[in-house]
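Can't paste images in this forum, so I'm doing it all in text. The chain is below; anyone willing to post the predicted structure tokens underneath?
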Amino acid sequence: MVIKTIVMFALLIVPICLVIINVVQSWPLLFAMYIIVGVGMAGIGMGVMHDAIHGSYSRNKILNKVVGWSLNLIGANDDVWRMQHNVLHHTYTNVKDGDDDINPPSFLRFSPHAPRQPIHRYQHWYTWLFYGLSTLSWVTTKDFIRLNKYRNLGLVKSPATYRRYLIKMILWKIVYFGYILALPMIFSSFSVGMILLAFVVMHFVTGISMSVVFQTAHVMPDTEFHEADSNGTLAHERFVHQMATTCNFAPKSTILTWFIGGLNFQVEHHLFPNICHVHYRKLSPIVQRTAQEYGIPYLYKKTFAEAIVDHYRMLRTLGRS
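Text version of the structure:
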């Protein structure tokens, strides 16, 4: 985890510093630097901050908190993430109106329980574009929208807490846009338009990387989608629910596992979010054997490519039926 953290922060910081100090002179190299930064942002998001905010990066709570701030450093907000991901997604995985990961804007349909519109018929083609734009939306507007939403849901306990979250969010975003946009615009030789275009390309790399990894774990032909009954009760016990709504992929790919923070072992992550992802590969066969023993589904795809193809098919199915 320490080596991964150093590598991902280097991918984030070194290229942007080279732009700021004017080492980078040509526009192809500028875009290359921002693409590398995008890879670093995705790596921090999936392989560093994700564990830290779950409390599994270290046994030290203070270190988890500090490393978790890396999400703020790449433009998002750790307080909102805790509510959206740790609370809602992990508690209500693939549950209508509970899991924000399957409650996208109305032009996308990620659940059979969501209303279907004519435009959804084409979502298996255009969804990928919006995956690429997802983190751009995230760092500009989505955090503010979700903070207000979660205040209305009661997840933000008091007006004072809301104000603290909001001020912290604004200050961190100033830091982010300061080093990723303002400093390159001021000190590099490139035009404002060129920097902005490179910034958008960077976010497309980050957005599509993170979106595809997270969505292929849940929006799949084999995973279940649930609604609570009139009493607010779900069909399965918590562990069974997680296994029925979650799918692994590429369990033998060491490189992919390293880069995406073990999120190809989503089943193990959802069962044991407090365990660092470096242990998921060893946990996986134990979980699989136990699932077989008790007749519980253990969903997985052999390769990442197979998972992406099945996710594409699921998007098409959701758009047509």
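Strands lie at 247-249, 299-301. The chain has a mean pLDDT of 96.
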